[in-house]
Amino acid sequence: xxxxTERLILRSFQETDLDxxxxxxxxxxxxxxxxYPGITRESSLEHLKQRVESEEFYAVVLKETGKVIGNIYCxxxxxxxxxxxxxxNKDYQRCGYAAEALFAMIREAFRQGAHRIYAECDPxxxxxxxxxxxxxxxxxxxxxxxxxxHRDDQGNPIWKDTYMYAILSREYIQYPxxxxxxxxxxxx
Length: 188
What we know:
This protein is of the alpha+beta class and 188 residues long. It has a single domain, classed as Gcn5-related N-acetyltransferase (GNAT) (Aminopeptidase), CATH 3.40.630. It contains five helices and eight strands; from the N terminus they run ββααβββαβαββα. It has an eight-stranded mixed sheet with strand order 1-2-3-4-5-6-8-7, sandwiched between helices. α1 crosses α2. The N and C termini lie close together (6 Å).
């Protein structure tokens, strides 16, 4: 599946995406919100292999240059649900790319019959939860110390909280009809 937006292409990962994938994953080495410690070029190869073989990871590609600036995840879950998540290269954040990719993925997931779409994020990651709210998802839960990505110097987990957001198909308000939306439907 490929989705086209005004500035982006969302497509399957390809073997040639290694350099761009390594670039944005290595930015998360010590990131407080994501768990990608110890990223090397070699470990990025394994991440790329997983993404190439997956039908749930999509490369976020700039139409203008062909550069992969991140990924968006849309994974199947039980009961016609989908879980979404996204990572955007720090050099391309705050340009609206995450919103553009997320809106397109939500639109497509509901078009394909999803009943519920949900996402999780760190409560301290205000940019992420504000984006989810902008996309129409509602905060359903605040899970306390439910996950960890890093350990302290003694090897103990550094626990963190999670916000859970979701939107139901009956709550979904179609994003405004634009040329981009029409183009997306014609390229799926």
